[in-house]
Amino acid sequence: MSVLKTLIERSNNTCELCGSVENLEQYTIPPALNENVENDILVCSICKNQINGDEEMNPNHWRCLNDSMWSEFVAVQIMAWRILHRLKKEGWPKDLLDMMYLTDEALALARATGEDKDPSEKIIHRDSNGVELKVGDSVVLVKDLKVKGSSMVAKQGTAVRNIRLDHENAKYIEGKVGAQQIVIVTDFVKKI
């Protein structure tokens, strides 16, 4: 069974965050690189656009997290935790965060994108042109790179899709070149 069909079945064909039944689609929680049931949730277009920053966050839309944060599925819990952290200045999300429980493993995954950090504490990754990089972006290599520990050379012009960010160093990103997962210095990439 495909990941999307499994998500539709487990969510009863509703958005796993807000309960909407319109414009549903599969969403892979960053920094996951592969689509699978543990990393994906079913969301409506309103939720997805606000999560991705395509639309401004509407705090009232997210009051639904009062219910979805208790989901039995870890991916839904992680996304609820991240959104609540984005909105914690509103007041009510902080109360929900105080009630929420995540296992140590789930909490580590939830913190992987830095949602819980103050904007002044966040590490910002920028490509060779100074454009901000985000989890899930696609980049292209601007020069040939020898991959340490292997005989592989990643050629200039190679596209690296669905990147992950190193949350301790602003110069490092991770991505797949061919079948190999590698760390790339941001000075040698350009956002597509």
Describe the protein.
It comes from Seonamhaeicola sediminis. InterPro entries: PhnaA_N_proteobac (IPR013991), YjdM_C (IPR013988). This protein is 26% helix and 21% strand. With 192 residues, it is an alpha+beta fold. It folds into two domains: 3-120, no CATH class; 139-191, SH3 type barrels (Roll), CATH 2.30.30. Strands 8-5-12 form a three-stranded antiparallel β-sheet, with no helix packed on it. β3 (125-126) and β4 form a beta hairpin. α4 (74-86) crosses α6.
SSE order and pairing:
Blueprint (H helix, E strand, L loop, with lengths): L2 H9 L12 E5 L11 E5 H8 L12 H4 L5 H13 L5 H8 L4 H7 L14 E2 L5 E2 L5 E3 L3 E2 L6 E2 L4 E2 L3 E2 L6 E6 L2 E6 L3 E3 L1
Antiparallel strand pairs: 1-2, 3-4, 5-8, 5-12, 6-7, 9-10, 10-11
InterPro entries: PhnaA_N_proteobac, YjdM_C
Organism: Seonamhaeicola sediminis
Protein name: PhnA protein
